[in-house]
Amino acid sequence: MSTDLEPAGSRGAPADSRGALGTTAAAQASLHLGALTDEAITIIREVAAECENPVLLFSGGKDSAVLLHLALLAFAPARLPFPVMHVDTGHNFAEVIDYRDRFVAQTGVRLVVASVQASIDSGRVVEDTGPRASRNRLQSVTLLDAIAEHGFDAAFGGGRRDEDKARAKERILSFRDRQGRWDPRQQRPEPWGVLNARIRKGEHLRAFPLSNWTEVDIWNYIALHEVELPTIYYSHTRTVVERDGMLLSVGGPVVLEPGEEPFDAVVRYRTVGDASCTGAVESTASTVWDVIAEVAAARITERGATRADDTFSESAMEDRKREGYF
Amino acid sequence: MSTATAIAPRRTGQLGTLRIATAGSVDDGKSTLIGRLLHDTKTVFEDQLSAVVKASRRYGDGETNLALLTDGLRAEREQGITIDVAHRYFATTRRSFIVADTPGHAQYTRNMVTGASTADVAIVLVDARHGVVEQTRRHAFIATLLGVKGIVVAVNKMDLIDWDENEFTNIAKEVDEYVRALPTPVPVVAIPLSALLGDNVVDGSTHTPWYDGPPLLELLEEFDNQPRVEVGSRVHVQRVIRPQGGEFADFRGYAGVLAGGSLAVGDAVIVQPAGIRTTVAALHRAGKPVEVAEIGHALVVELADTVDVARGDVLVTADSTTAPGVGETVEADICWMIDQPLTVGSRWWFKHGSRTGRATVVAIDHRHDLATLDRAPTDQLGLNDLGHVRLHLSEPVVADRYVDNPDGGRLILIDEATNTTAAAAMVTSIAP
């Protein structure tokens, strides 16, 4: 029997598909990507088996797209045995919501939406005001409330250790107490990656199957498996404003400050998050292979280049993670 | 002392990803060495480096402190120490690397165990001024017990002893002799280097004309991390895949990871512990049909016969010469990782592969004295102790000796009260 269990649906790779690297390096990269894929699928299966009610956090960004693709592979040809959840800040890129809804329709997964707007409306969180207000940090409350409301005992996230120095310290299966807090000084040992999923009621786990992946690994996977992404990951023309060295999209939640002049630029997004604090980068990379070449040559990290919230302070990510952030 | 070629024979084939762990005492320069490796392989991004330059000033370091590339927690930066393992990634044109930078403090040994447990090679740092200290020995011991395939002794801060060849040779010899006397010795290679200045890390050094080995990176690029002992196949079944409808209504596959050996379509296998024989009808990896699978692959296995297979079972090659042990009595080397001591008669959860159950401690044979290498009789093991124990399990496991097949010979113990992971255990024997 030679059944192809790969989930259907994606952007076609160009006919002349080839890696941006030479042959030896390409073979090396392929071996490495295979090992990362095995590791991620094994983690997803193990957490799904040990936990009663897991959920996969899906933002529509490239990491969660790869994570969901891997999860579908892990159980194919059976259906995904858990729902996916989008924590919706209300500050979205239209292309991302469009992509999310198409992906969900195509794959038939069950989608749960947790709304930051609803948290604001119900008084659970108070929104910052002013031209630079961001809802990014508010997501933690909405996320924890949704986890409690649905009784989720594990949440898969697309977090990668190479993204940030606090994430570099986190376990694959990361414990959260009843308040949803991460205590980086009291992490459970995780020898050999043998996953200990035991928790008490009210506590939960975060599972990071992509822990050992880098940005280039993600793109190599997207190329190999022809994973579809929101179009804003590829080069396009957009009206932007430059603020603190970042290009922020105009026309959405970003409020212009005095003296700021919008202009058209050829850009793409390296990450996709809350539209108020996610920056675009100037780029002409219009195919997955262009992006791989660009990422391989990048001299700035994806978060440094595109996230205003992480350049706030030295331990911005650690502080948010302690509060329950992704 | 092994030569560099003993640890890294030149190969023509494709080498897999190399997993590296640092080890050694506090302030021997582990994080600085990894920072140097990342920096000199051009893996550090400009914004990371400028953040490190800024932070170095804030914490009052004279020059750019490359250790801050891996010491990412606020408490670590404030104290200038490593508390928990940091994972970093880099690749050269020849190989991909996963680095676990582990803490040196004895109190964080469990985090060192986490980092070193998956490592192919341990880089044991020694401060050339202080020579071999207790933590050097402790970490070398743990690393060999966890099954690293080689130890690289990075004799660091050579610039501070004027690149003294005699001092270097003495340190190298002392570690080599210590490792040779361990229960599970591995090849040892020593390199004189300066993590701070970069000598013999990625590039060679003009200060060590007497050293004819390669710099650290070159050694790692050629390090042979193939399994030492070939065992038969072991698929730890994690889940039964049954779509129950549509195009795949009759499909029944067993999802699991190949934790030893290789497996091919047509192979005769035994479902253990039940002992049922059948044949592999099809294999899938990452959604694609494959003819042969290797260790570490995440598989869906279709079997020729309708047999009873459940989560926790193991599919094993039907070959008596490579058969695993099946039983409820397990002896194991153990790293104890919680404050509450391990005592005879105590009860824990265990997890081996995809099987979970209860474990009772039947006997504590001894504690390893890391300085003398004596096996000291004891009635309990405390935090960070290494010892040898006998466990009785509530259900049988299908296991290998850890030295024969680490993936099939490892288990963890979990504290019933707190749910925390209490021990890493490496099987030395399995009996009914």
Measured between the Cα atoms of the first and last residue of chain B, the distance is 41 Å
- Give the % helix of chain A: 25-40%
On the 0 to 100 scale, the average pLDDT of chain A is: 86
By CATH, the topology of the largest domain in chain B is: Rossmann fold
Order of helices and strands of chain A: HEHEHEHHEEEHEEEEHHH
Assess the beta-strand content of chain A as a share of residues.
5-15%
Overall tally of domains of chain A = 2
Strand order of the largest sheet of chain B: 2-3-1-4-5-6
Strand order of the largest sheet of chain A: 3-2-1-4-6-5
Number of strands of chain A: 10
What is the helix content of chain B? 10-25%
- Note the main sheet of chain A: 6 strands, mixed
Let me know the CATH homologous superfamily of the largest domain in chain A: HUPs
Q: How large is the radius of gyration of chain A?
A: 19 Å
**Overall pLDDT confidence of chain B:** 90
Structure, described:
The complex is a heterodimer of chains A (326) and B (432). With 326 residues, chain A is an alpha/beta fold. Chain A folds into 2 domains: 23-220 and 315-322, 3-Layer(aba) Sandwich (Rossmann fold), CATH 3.40.50; 229-311, no CATH class. Chain A has helices spanning 23-50, 62-75, 94-107, 116-121, 139-150, 215-224, 288-297, 302-306, 316-322; strands at residues 54-57, 84-88, 111-115, 154-156, 173-176, 204-207, 236-243, 246-249, 263-269, 280-282. In chain A, the strands form 2 sheets. Chain A has a 6-stranded mixed β-sheet. In chain A, strands 8-7-9-10 form a 4-stranded antiparallel β-sheet, with no helix packed on it. The N and C termini of chain A lie far apart (41 Å). Chain B folds into 3 domains: 4-221, P-loop containing nucleotide triphosphate hydrolases (Rossmann fold, 3-Layer(aba) Sandwich), CATH 3.40.50; 234-322, Translation factors (Elongation Factor Tu (Ef-tu), domain 3), CATH 2.40.30; 325-431, Elongation Factor Tu (Ef-tu), domain 3, CATH 2.40.30.10. In chain B, 18% of the residues lie in helices and 35% in strands. Chain B has 8 helices and 24 strands. In chain B, the strands form 5 sheets. In chain B, strands 2-3-1-4-5-6 form a 6-stranded mixed β-sheet, sandwiched between helices. Chain B has a 6-stranded antiparallel barrel with strand order 7-8-14-11-10-15. Chain B is globular and about 70 Å long. The model of chain B is unreliable at 8-12 (pLDDT under 50). At the A-B interface, helix 1 and helix 2 of A face helix 3, helix 4, strand 2, helix 5 and strand 7 of B.
